[in-house]
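Table S7 (text form). Paired inputs.
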Amino acid sequence: MSLTLTAWSRPDRGALFVVTGASGTGKTTLVKEALKVVPGLGFSVSATTRAPRANEVDGVDYHFVTPAAFDALVADGALLEWATVYGNRYGTLRAPVAAALEAGQSILLEIDQHGAAQVRAAMPEAVSIFVLPPAAAAIGERLRARSTDAPEVIARRVAEAEAQLRCVGAFDYIVVNDDLPSAHDQFQAVLVATLLQRTRHDSLVRRFTG
């Protein structure tokens, strides 16, 4: 499927897309491809308290901040969502997202269901997409196929993934990643259809209606 947004179809205000799915459902693959082929779509750079890794660039890979600075961001309400992962904190900065949307750029957030709930509470207009496997058993199969983790670690990750799947009812759209090319088409169709909503194109409407 070829999906192109022209200058005429670029929205006056961008959309915030929240993408969630259990580990092993392929959501990262869908997000990376969409960022390549859907014009006007960007990825939010998160803030984190963890140290930079080799070749990571501040402001490009992450905004690297101290724990005290992160505390201040939380206290000031400067984060749309945040969480602690393996002892480090990660969060989505509110101001850059808001500025991008006002400029007509759309933003993809790939986060877990807890972060998605925080974003929906902060910005109810966010469009949420949940990526599902064809069946719950497929998660374990994919994790075992791609991972060198010990069986007990895989079992824990499968249990966590199954718990995540139970949150699917809270999302606006569902994409079932059974066949990857079809999943790409479905995912990108949701993005483009949202960006073509009449309510996002007041300037275009005025051009034709006076």
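Next pair, protein 2 of 2.
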Amino acid sequence: MSSRFLKGAERDPSNMALGDHLRELRKRLFICLGAVVIALVPAWFAYPWLVDFLNEPYCSAQQALDSGASCKFLETDVLEPFSLRIRIAGWGAVILAMPVILWQLWRFIAPGLYKKERRYAFAFVGSGMALFAVGAGLAYFTLSRATEFLIGIAGTEVEVRAGIGNFTRLALFMMVAFGVGFQFPVVMVALQMVGIVTPQKLASWRRQVALGIVILAAGITPSGDPFSLFALAIPMYVLFELSLLIGRLWLRRKAKRGGKAKGGGTAKRDDSTKAES
């Protein structure tokens, strides 16, 4: 049967032409786009809750510095609230549609993978999503202290009143930056599994890695305050050490499998020699 009549995972990727791959990709992209458009409706109406959630650290920081301070934002651009609602609704729609997006990505990639590769891919995607969520959550909970530091450093002579769009962007960027930073151990484990680096080699680079993590954390945290920097750098280094442990365990398990395979092959050769004698 021609591959054009087969769908998704039923197709044999080795028999699919470039046009078939492109049509399959277009189909998956349209499904993802449709899911985001549908999710825009509940995300639009959930805007008040989403904006309160994103701006809660700002209110907490203001109350910590001055219990009588107002949590209201100061906005001088009359168009900003509308564009802000569109942006937040868009991000909310992407998050709501994420299960559909990931499923369509998996349906596009999975047919070209072996069974063992599918298992590894599922583990990496699942761990990557979990680490991204943990990183974004950590950024949210540290944002209040970071905001308190940034407002307090201006001194009592300056009244800081943030624009709602500015602070929302800061909150989103911080959460994304922490989420991306927490993908570091996934990359380290992948490099060890494909043999590009070894746990022993990475362990010998501990000082350089620690310095690199601090520089990277300083570069990707948009607020630039020390609370955010160390809140990202310390967990990243702990996850780096965890990736070394996972790499050692994986190599040890791989060596045991290789030993069993060699032992089984030797036993078979011994049995055949005995049978011949």
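The first helix runs from residue 18 to 45.
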